[in-house]
Amino acid sequence: MIKKLRIKFIVLTSVSLFALLTIIVAGMNILNYNSVVSEADRVLSLLSQNNGSFPDFGGHRGDRLPPNMSPEIPYESRFFSVVINISGDIIRTETNQIISVDRENAIEYARLSLQKRNNIGFVGDFRFVRSIEGDAIRITFLDCGRRLNAYRNFLMISIIMAFAGFIIVLLVIAFFSGKFIRPIAESYEKQKRFITDAGHEIKTPLTIINANVDILEMDIGENECLDDIAQQAKRLTALTNDLVYLARMEEAENSLQMIEFPVSEVVYETAIPFKALAAASGKQFSCSVQPMLSVRGNNKAIEQMVSILMDNALKYSPEGGEVSLSFFRQNRNLILSVFNTTASPVKPEDLQYVFDRFYRLDSSRNSETGGHGIGLSVAKAIAAAHGGKIAAGTNDGLSFEITVTLPI
């Protein structure tokens, strides 16, 4: 369990760190890209308003430039434009402000831009805008190659730096994770040790109590008080054994002996004796087990798990209710399902707690059932020891179903 807790801690921290770095890197680069596009659009807007050229400065640099635009922009920008009539014929091309694009290239870029729905966009590294000029259409292109290359370089560097930082922090977290969860591990180990030691210590007085009850019954005969003492001692013994067993099952070094065995036979032979108990209490019982199934595991533990689930279903089903067990193969898993109707409604929000120790869906039936609310915790530990999963559900709020999934 401590190993799983450490893995969960590392995974949770790593996912949180990865999400944070992703948000930071994505946010910076989105802002950077939007800055490139915004500046290009402002320049293109100025060019389209002046028939594909910058306005005349009249001898004063930057007099007619928009606010927040550098006066060096007209001298730094590389642009060209193509004028097309309504029929799609090329009227003229203006490529004086760029060397890398000739007339043929300009016409090709214009045709590619006309294939796009929007009046503004990118063709390669050129940002374009379409504007109406009399009876023709002017398509103005601005070379954004340098800004886009700077953006791409920043994007690549930020991703590499974020990934490197993520790996370094992940290694640090993995190295120190043992220290982070050490207090929890120590507390958990003390708890397991206390349960195991207390369980062994309690067994001795319980044995003495049972022996004295037997002696008293031999001396004075049957007695109601002695019967109550014997019954409560039996319950306490069962509770102690379950707690000790659960503590052992949850140990990291689980000592269950795993072998390949015919699990169909074990499930059927464990479940079928409950048919008589169901009939005696006026309950309908059905059992469906797919034959010839086998699994690698511990047959005694599987037998105990089936017994716990069947006992739980019988205890909490009302008189005249239904109890059923089904066991079958589904793809690469074995599915064990135990179903029972319930006397009181089952709330879906309570199902997440049913495998907690001492939890009961219907606490009012404690005295009737005689259980102590730890059986499903043991069943969960057995399923986990076999690499499986266990889940609780309800179809209509008046039934309860436990489903165990075991990998083949």
How is this structure best described in words?
This protein has 408 residues and is an alpha+beta fold. It has eleven helices and twelve strands. The protein has helices at 2-49, 73-76, 103-114, 145-180, 182-220, 224-249, 263-271, 274-280, 299-315, 366-369, 375-385, and strands at residues 79-85, 90-94, 120-123, 126-133, 136-143, 259-261, 284-289, 295-297, 322-330, 333-341, 389-393, 399-407. Strands 2-1-5-4-3 form a five-stranded antiparallel sheet, with helices on both faces. A five-stranded mixed sheet has the order 7-9-10-12-11. Helix 5 runs antiparallel to helix 6 (224-249) and helix 7 runs parallel beside helix 9. The relative contact order is 0.07.
Please outline the helices and strands:
Elements lengths: L1 H48 L23 H4 L2 E7 L4 E5 L8 H12 L5 E4 L2 E8 L2 E8 L1 H36 L1 H39 L3 H26 L9 E3 L1 H9 L2 H7 L3 E6 L5 E3 L1 H17 L6 E9 L2 E9 L24 H4 L5 H11 L3 E5 L5 E9 L1
Parallel strand pairs: 7-9
Antiparallel strand pairs: 1-2, 1-5, 3-4, 4-5, 6-8, 9-10, 10-12, 11-12
In short:
With 408 residues, the chain is of the alpha+beta class. It contains 11 helices and 12 strands. The protein has helices spanning 2-49, 73-76, 103-114, 145-180, 182-220, 224-249, 263-271, 274-280, 299-315, 366-369, 375-385, and strands spanning 79-85, 90-94, 120-123, 126-133, 136-143, 259-261, 284-289, 295-297, 322-330, 333-341, 389-393, 399-407.
